[in-house]
Structure formats: C-alpha cells, structure tokens
Amino acid sequence: xxxxxxxxxxxxxxxxxxxxxxxGFGETLPGEVLRAAGALVTKGISLYPRExxxxxxxxxxxxxxxxxxxxxxxxxEAFKARILPRLLKIGPPVMVNILGEDEEEFLRLAEGxxxxxxxxxxxxxxxxNVRRGGMAFAYDPEGVRRLVGRLRExxxxxxxxxxxxxxxxxEVAQAAEExxxxxxTCANTYPALVVQKTPRGPRFHQGGLSGPxxxxxxxxxxxxxxxRVKIPLIASGGILSGRDAQDYLxxxxxxxxxxxxxxxxxxxxxxxxxxxxxxxxxx
Length: 283
Ligand SMILES: Cc1cc2nc3c(=O)[nH]c(=O)nc-3n(C[C@H](O)[C@H](O)[C@H](O)COP(=O)(O)O)c2cc1C
What we know:
283 residues; alpha/beta; TIM Barrel; 35% helix; 25% strand; globular; binds flavin mononucleotide
C-alpha cells in the first residue's frame, strides 16, 4: 500500500501527498519529510496576490481545527519566480492548487503554469464564482463541467478537481469526470463555527473544519464516490495515522493527503507512511 502508484498517467513513489495549505511552501518542514512525500500539493495560488483574512485565523475544537486563512498567497507571477523553482528541486512531483474568481482566471492560471515543470493541477472549486453572484463553483455541476472542459483545452497534463464536501458533490464529481478530470480530491474542509466568550460578549469565528472530526464524514464521501466514478480518488480529511490512511484506501481511494496532522507534528507524514507499511505487511 506504500509502493509506487500511477494516477491517470502521473507516477508517484507512494500514495501520500502533502495537502494544500498545511505545509506552507516547505519552509517549516524537515527536508526529509518533503522528500518522502509521493507529491507536494501547494497552497491555493490565485492570479493576483491575496492578503487573506485578519487574525485569528485558526481555532482549535475538541477534535478538529477551524481555519479562516482566506487563501493568502503571493499570486501566480511571484509564485513562479520565487517559490516554484525551490519546490521543483525537492524531488517529488509538485501539484499546484489553483483558485480563480471566475473561469477566465482559472484558465489564465493553467496557461501560466504550462511548461514550468509542474506535474499537475488541483482545481479548488470551493471558492466563490464572482460571475455567478459569489456562489461557489462547487454548487454548480454544469459550471464545473464547463470549467473542467475549458481547462482541458489548455492543460493536457494531470488534473484533479478538489471537491467541496458541501453542495451536490456527486453530481459535481460526475460532471468533472465527464469533462475530462484525471482524478478527484475528496474533499475540502467543512464550513463550521466556533464561539469564543470575551468580556465584550461572544465572538463568532467561522471557518473550515479539518482534522479527526471530519474523517468519518469524508470517508463516507470517498466510499460513495468510488461507486459512482471511475477516475482515481485522492482522499483528504482527518488522516492522522496509517490506519486512517488505510481506511480511505479500503473505501476506494488510490492516494491520500495529510494536512492538519502535519500542523500538529511536522514528522507525521513519515510516521503515517511507516504505519501504513506495517499494516499492509500484517494483512
Ligand atoms: C490551515 C489550512 C489551510 C488550507 N489551505 C487550503 C488551500 O489553500 N487550498 C485548498 O484546496 N485546501 C486548503 N486546505 C484544506 C486541506 O488541504 C485539506 O483538504 C483539509 O484540511 C482536510 O484534510 P486534513 O483534515 O488532513 O487537514 C487548508 C487546510 C488548512 C487546515
């Protein structure tokens, strides 16, 4: 279960990917962890720089983490000039997670990343589509079909659509597959709320929930998706141990991503790979 795999033409040394947004651009992780990953998925890159949300951006919940980073990133040009060359030297294939405000921005991102050595795109459809009144792409299966179809014209390489766990996920998944997606990443964080009591009254902190709390929810989505689509599934949601990863592989995923676990323990990806290896030997 930890050997090399192929996902729609993309070869990985092992099925573990570092999840978007949870390892910075590698500055804070030991080089050994970065090199051991099957693939590195960057945080969301937009056409223009984004400042993100004001702090606090993270809140702990009993079994999870709520984040409201607001997709802070340096924008495409600065990413290509200052960050990508360093990531490409690490070794594992680099996948770039892209986010656009509308179809045109997604297309310009894909065009701008062509010929740069990037091994694949992960298309974040959880972001609002400004041309549809701010409704997330993930709520609009026909919009996703059109988006993926147009991306396919400019990006023939590996392309995974990162699904949102909310909205009509099965219809969106099928539309993405029919339009030519090479894989589906299941799934992004769940919209959630934390209430903080302060002397001036309650403070409401909205954000995306990740970590162990979401694992059974996303595991079900992967299991159901595996019965509905033929393209490979990349699981993402609450993987903290080799057993968690194995559950997703048994439910029908071909690869998996480790996110919040890396924030808790920078060496978690190494531990998860060795636990998974042991589990598969024991079976
Ligand atoms: C701090 C933080 C930042 C994230 N940034 C992104 C992002 O830029 N793009 C994206 O598609 N997902 C992003 N995610 C979602 C993760 O990639 C992952 O899909 C999600 O956290 C579920 O996996 P986990 O429970 O292993 O963390 C982020 C998650 C966290 C916790």
